[in-house]
Amino acid sequence: MSQRNWPRLALLVDPSVAAANTLAAARKTKPLMNFSELGLAAPILRALQDEGYAQPTPIQTKAIPGVLAGRDLLGIAQTGTGKTAAFALPILHRLAANRRPALRKGCRVLVLTPTRELASQIAESFRTYGRHLGMTVAVVFGGVGHRPQIQALTRGVDVLVATPGRLLDHIAERDIVLSGTEVLVLDEADQMLDLGFLPPIRRIVAQLTSKRQNLFFSATMPHEIGKLADELLRDPVRVAVSPSATTVDSVKQRVLHVESHNKRALLVELFADPQMSRALVFTRTKRGADRVAHHLEMAGISVAAIHGNKSQSQRERALAAFRAAKIRVLVATDIAARGIDIDQVTHVVNFELPDVPESYVHRIGRTARAGAAGIAISLCDAEERDLLRDIERLTRQPIPAEDRRLGTTRGSDLSAQRQSHRGNGHGPGSRGADDQRASNRKRQQQAPHGRQQQGDNRGFRSAAGPARHRGAPKQSAGRASSSAGGR
After folding, report:
1. Minimum mean pLDDT among 87-91, 125-129, 242-246, 333-337: which range?
2. Domain ranges of the chain
3. Cα–Cα dist 217/76, whole Å
4. What is the mean pLDDT of residues 324-343?
5. What pLDDT sits at residue 33?
6. Mean pLDDT: which of 93-97, 455-459, 460-464, 478-482 is highest?
């Protein structure tokens, strides 16, 4: 499948998918589709009713008929749109319709995902939706012992959810056999590739039979995903419920310009607002996350940190406390930016802007979930201005800004200034601005304390995300992620 043929994939959708698409387009004049109209088995519908779910989301409406028909699928949807149920529900239906035991040490369905937290969440979704079907579900990820996982796989399972690194460990030890796998799901495919998991994925795919169904779900569509799709997908249905790299409309965004050394004080000041009742704070690095968490704790704010250096039990306790509102703030690296579904997150704060602009979209997608409103605040210092421009260029929208630097008018609105700069030849796309930025970068490289010299935070890599300097070798970054995120 060539990338240039993707727009024509709509013609390949099976008639039931086309009907669902037409129905979604006419939702203003017709009632929304119910799960019962999608042809799912009665036990699955009963489980959905138990959870209070009656109407599918757009990605579910478009994807489920194609998966039920046995088609390969490439699904593109923003985070928080219900991608997990979009593949879990039809997979469970197909397993129930054709019941047979999995091979010893094998699995009928393999779901690959980049992080431990997401693996646990997906496995729990399969258990929840399949509670009346008696399906067996196992989870394999790093940070915990091998023996319980080996025992769970011994008799074979219906569904296995795994991170690539630990799965390859079990394959090498012959603890698992994948020759009987019928369905492969690659969830958060773009992050898997961004974390350097492309070689491990290819090694895993080599263990699978060619007679299988392939399902790819991703929030964005970088070039590497297209190449992998060309290799693995056969005549796929392509469904997309929103453009790639767009932000959730219900998230109110703003940028606060501040000096780097004043960020922590400003962060504490922001939490004087009682409306920030449940907030996610993102940093680029593990050390940075611990420092921010410690500073907030010293200010009397209940907080926990989650990143790749934490043990699995520590991460699970932090997430559980945050979900239960026992703590007000969860400080995280990008390991938590994808797929972790935590209800009622009121604010997302980017303590540091991400080096990869797509990560901004995934971060702020942690709020405004299930139709709720949310607020995203980004603290931007002078060295992050280019990162901010990259984000605005990617999302194709300016972000309202305020100047919180000392010695400036407090809360002054920079949006009008930036709009004026665009009109007078000093905007982000103008030649004069490009020359000025090039001159600034040259001065920073010559300065003894430039950005590349700040080894306390920005020279280190997060265990779960591509927090690297531009121009840093991608191969080494991928190896660091593979060991921490997948093992």
Report:
1. 242-246
2. 3-240, 251-413
3. 6
4. 80
5. 79
6. 93-97
| Dihedral in degrees, nearest 10, Cα atoms 222, 358, 366, 263 | 160
Asked if pLDDT for residue 177 goes beyond 90, the answer is yes
Cα 239 to Cα 300: distance, rounded to the nearest angstrom: 47
Residue 207 has a pLDDT of 94
C-alpha angle with apex 404: 400 to 410, nearest 5 degrees?
Answer: 95
Structure tokens at 79: 């985070």
Strand 401-403 vs strand 374-380: parallel, antiparallel, or unpaired? unpaired
Q: Do domains 3-240 and 251-413 have the same CATH topology?
A: yes
**Closest-CA residue to 160 (of 177, 146, 173, 144):** 177
What pLDDT does residue 224 have? Answer: 76
Q: Across all residues in the chain, what is the average pLDDT?
A: 78
- Residues 26-39 pLDDT 10s: 333 344 579 999 99
CA–CA separation, 280 and 251 (whole Å): 14
45 forms beta bridges with none
Question: Distance (Å, rounded) from C-alpha 102 to C-alpha 455?
Answer: 50
Backbone angles phi, psi at 56, to 5 degrees: -75, 155
Residue type, 166: R
Domain covering 251-413, topology: Rossmann fold (3.40.50)
Distance CA 308, CA 115 (A): 10
90 and 62 Cβ atoms separated by less than 8 Å = no
Fold (topology level) of 3-240 = Rossmann fold (3.40.50)
Is the pLDDT reported for residue 12 higher than 50?
A: no
